[in-house]
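Handout for the seminar on molecular recognition.
Each group receives one record of this type.
Step one: identify the two inputs.
Step two: read the structure output and locate the region that could contact zinc ion.
Step three: write two sentences on what you found, then compare them with the reference statements printed after the record.
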Amino acid sequence: MTVQPIRLFGDPVLRTPAEPVVDFDAELRKLVADLTDTMREQNGAGLAAPQLGVGLRVFTFDVDDVVGHLVNPVLHFPDEEEQDGQEGCLSIPGLYFDTKRRLNVVAKGFTEYGDPLQIVGTGLMARCVQHETDHLDGVLFLDRLDPEARKEAMKAIRQADWYDEAAPPVVKVSPHDVPPSRRQSLASRFGLGSDRSANPFGLGR
Ligand SMILES: [Zn+2]
C-alpha cells in the first residue's frame, strides 16, 4: 500500500472515460489500497482511479468515518430531491464551489473481490458518490457549475500556483515490443501518459 501522486486539472487522464474492471485480481486490490491510502493521507472524502492515472472504474470514499470502495458503479436516483453545497476536488486543490447534486443516490457495483455491493447514500455520501462516479466518466465538478461560477473557477485555476499550462503531461509510447492490439487495450485501460512497462499503474508524470 502506497500513497501515490494525484493527477491535477489539465492532465488528460482526468478527461478520459475509464474502462470497466474485468479482472478482480491482485492488481485491482493494490489499486484500491493505493486509492485508500492516498485519499486518507490527503484527507479527501473520495478518490477515483483516474486521479492516480489509472483508467479503470473504481473509486474509494471516506465519509462520516465510513471508508470503502466501489468497482464498476452504476447510479440510481430514487427521487428528484436536490442538494446544494460546497464541493472540492483533490485534483483541483484549494478551490471550493457550491455545486448542485441529487440528495439521494443508490450506487450498485462490486467489491474488489467481485462481490455485489450496494451503497445507499444521502447528503455528503450521495455527493461523494456522484462526484467520484463523474470522475470515471471524465467529468469534473466544474462541469456541474453554472456558467458564471465556472468562469470564476477557471480564472482561479489559472492563477493557482499548482497549475502549469505550459507543461502538459507527456504521452509516451512503450519502447518495448508489445503486439499492437495488446498495446491498444492497455492504453485504453490505463489512460494517457502512462509508461505501462515501467510502472503498472502509470503513475508519475
Ligand atoms: Zn474529484
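Reference statements: The first strand starts at residue 46 and ends at 48. The mean pLDDT is 86.
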